[in-house]
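Researcher: I'm comparing several assemblies side by side, and this is the next one on my list. It has 585 residues spread over two chains. Same procedure as the others: predict the full complex and return the structure.
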Amino acid sequence: MKTKKRGMKNRVLLQQEFKIQGGDFVNAGESSCKIRNTLREIGIDSDIIRRIAIAAYEAEMNVVMYAHHGTMKINVYRDKILLTINDKGPGIENIVLAMKPGFSTATEEMREMGFGAGMGLPNMKKNADTFKISSEVGKGTRLEIKILLNGKNG
Amino acid sequence: MAEQTFFHSIKVDDAKCIGCVACMKACPTKAIRLRNHKARINYERCIDCGECLRVCPHNAIMPLTTLLSDLDRFKYKIALPSPVLYTQLGQEVMPNEILTILKEIGFDHVYDEALVCEMMSIATEEYLDEHKSPRPIISSICPVVIRLVQRLFPSLCENILPLEPPREIAAKNLRLEVSKEKNIKTADIGIIHITPCSAKMVSINHPESMAKSNLDGAISIREIYNKVMMKLKQEAGLLMMQTQTRISGIGIGWAFEGGEIRGLKYTNTVSVSGLLDTIRILEDVESGRLKNIEYLECLICPDGCIGGPLTVENRFVAKSNVLRLLRHFGGKKRVNTNLVTKLYKENFFSFKWAVEPKSFPPLDADRSMAIKKLKMKEELTGKLPGTDCGVCGAPDCKTLAEDIVRGEARLEDCIYIQRKKLHDTQNNGEN
């Protein structure tokens, strides 16, 4: 009985994947917008949608700003939503430093465009229930953002 | 059922509707369908923006605003014109003259709303000073913006400025003052907003932040226009000597986009007008992109209220007229700041309660069913031609797919699918 229940819990109910092109500022933000619309259609609570929208947008912008290309995958489970972002790019040299609010390696141009305030990663962490980051310099970065759904309001 | 949750300010006149696709295509929330060659508004999805009213080539979409003939039920009638009215009657006519004329077409008293607009700039500053988050604060003057936020951006309800718009504050104050001064029962006083759009009827009949609106109705500028023009012609020259009301130049600026933010000491502000641009900027706010902005003025009509669907003058001329008025009246303060601060502290301007989120219904109340339906919808969308012709009665193929999974339409409603089926059976017959 118990194992069956756990099986249900870990079953992916819905999965969507989006490609993100590095340097494409024109279409930046589209994937997170699509994710938001999907979550609305399946009746996810508005506060949770807002948290996911913020995390997804920040993650998407990071790929656009720093990486060559990447993917954003959203998995909806019965009790949680998992957002996974993989990119091929320069990676992050010092993750501890990158997680510090205000730290940024953004160029002057990016800052002029209003990006690179050094709040991207801290913001994602703030809106996630669990946040995992791993990176290899010269290869790329992987983010896992988990947001729990509680009861029927989730 | 839906009418219980939301009052609406527009209605289809079946006698005039010929069942073309104009309104259905224009609707931003996909609330209109064609059924038996008539437009049908799904009031569950309608946000009263008035786009259908603008585009209908047959005048078949009716605004449900107050009529001049409805005024008789009030013993004492007060007109509270939107500053937009001052921009509608040509270059030469001044606000004072317009207020005088309103008194001659059946109102007992008139009041310049612009003065209260100026007050609300001060009150808004007080609020921004006092509350440092969330950001940006979104203005509360356009009833359509409020509904749009409730429906499409429910998590942003907490960003809405919890102060009533000038028309409500002016009416609240007028009822108190006039009943005392003239010794009239408050219930005998009818306070009527003169409006550039039908959406004000929504906030009057179904306010989202209090139990009962302070206004008793809203007459459209179109409804009074001819009468006012006739009077103007008859009495040219005589008018200037009459009604000398204080007119606020700062407040008149609220007639078009930027009016609210121009009056603020904060400069990190943004103003947006037009439906699509408003939706776009609210998407940015929801992504957390505009946290550095203090105040966001959103108006659904293009260029703001002067672009309202129930105005008469074209909005570019109206804008030129309002700029001329701004030059004439200047930026001189007409309002006592200390009085506004005092009223603000007494919560005179405040919402009674916060605006509640009211999201669009998901595909199904049950999550796993909703996910199943979402997958079905995507599959169906792939089968449909993607030409968005509208013949099926839905505005586009994707919406037809959604209607099908919601059980409100059939795949055979699509004319392309029908033709293909017919073709297939004929071919089978020949074999």
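Model: For your comparison table: The mean pLDDT of chain B is 92.
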